[in-house]
Amino acid sequence: MNKCTISGNISRDIEIRHTQSGMSVCSFGIAVNEKYKKNDELLEKVSFFDVTFFGKKGEAIEKYMRKGSKILIDGKLNFEQWDDKTTGQKRSKVLIIGNEFEFMDSKDSQGGGHESSYQKQPQQQPKPPESAFETPPAMPNFENGMEDDLPF
Questions:
Q1: Whether 103 contacts 128, CB under 8 Å
Q2: Which one of 40, 45, 71, 88 is at 20 to 30 Å from 99 when CA atoms are compared?
Q3: Structural domains in the chain, sorted by start
Q4: How do residues 102-136 score in pLDDT, each as one tens digit?
């Protein structure tokens, strides 16, 4: 099973591009802080990951989020390998392919952290939806003998 859930801050400006077929591809980095104790000293480790979302979800992230925004991502890991063109050495990285996301900024700071450099004039940020996670369907009511209608 290939599934990951990660929460952190967007660490660089969000890039959006389009495939030849017109599908949106949204790419950004996420920074995840981990605090731990070693010999009675509180230490912090920061890990950085590349994230990619496709389609409407990527467009929503680009529209509502900025560098510094908090986000929760549900996705899968994708291992990529290539040969470095300058050195000829093998290179690799693990990329997160996002399936779902949830905005984690407080209500007071909706719309993200810092403004991007391409925004020349102040703009009112539209209010994002609370979550991009789908609501699971309701469980069937088995009180009236419906269990006999099941095919197994």
A1: yes
A2: 45
A3: 4-149 (2.40.50.140)
A4: 998 865 554 444 333 333 334 455 555 555 555 44
